[in-house]
């Protein structure tokens, strides 16, 4: 059933995100996750989506326009490290997702970086609502990917267990360097 990280993350998103939620797609890429989030939050929810590459934002915009869901989204051509700058003031996130690495079908030399990914995760966790969740798909098969993964894992291991639960889901029988999914859950109730 879950042979890919994306199918697992979409399952978790679908089980967690509710109508009226505020959610963040910190690396919108080709727009698949943003589209799912927009369909789940309903007309009173909000999706904030960003990507550092203009072609990613354009692809996401087109998917949302085609599905008639653009009105519940705000799209920004920004680094995920700047997510806190575009979130509505005084609000908490119900869900945030990250796909780290490079844009599929894009320029493979443009990759997420350990420092900016760490800043982004710190900012998002600080704005996470009780019961909220952060789902990060971490790709390690490209140059710099393992360093980014190591940085995030070391940081997340230090999050206070009284407030957050951190888990890692990985495929152990796949060849190469398959991605893993890191899940950070705020222990409070929704």
CATH H-level homologous superfamily name = Vaccinia Virus protein VP39
Would you identify the CATH architecture?
3-Layer(aba) Sandwich
Give the number of helices: 6
Shape: globular
- Uncertain runs are none
- β-strand number: 7
Report the major sheet.
7 strands, mixed
Largest sheet, spatial ordering of strands: 3-2-1-4-5-7-6
Query: For the CA atoms, what is the radius of gyration?
Result: 15 Å
Total discrete domains: 1
CATH-derived topology:
Rossmann fold
Report how far the terminal alpha carbons are from each other.
Answer: 28 Å
Structural class comes to alpha/beta
N-to-C SSE series?
A: HEHEHEHEHEHEE
Percent of residues in helices: 25-40%
* CATH level 1 class label: Alpha Beta
Features:
7 strands; Rossmann fold; about 190 residues; about 35% helix; about 25% strand; alpha/beta; globular
Fold topology:
Elements: H1 5-16, E1 22-25, H2 32-41, E2 46-51, H3 54-66, E3 73-77, H4 83-86, E4 93-100, H5 114-126, E5 128-138, H6 145-157, E6 164-170, E7 180-186
Parallel strand pairs: 1-2, 1-4, 2-3, 4-5
Antiparallel strand pairs: 5-7, 6-7
Helix pairs in contact: 5-6
Task: Characterise this structure.
With 190 residues, the protein is α/β, with parallel strands linked by helices. The chain has one domain (5-186): Rossmann fold, CATH 3.40.50. It has helices spanning 5-16, 32-41, 54-66, 83-86, 114-126, 145-157; strands spanning 22-25, 46-51, 73-77, 93-100, 128-138, 164-170, 180-186. Strands 3-2-1-4-5-7-6 form a 7-stranded mixed sheet, with helices on both faces. Helix 2 links the parallel strand 1 and strand 2 (46-51). Helix 5 runs parallel beside helix 6 (145-157).
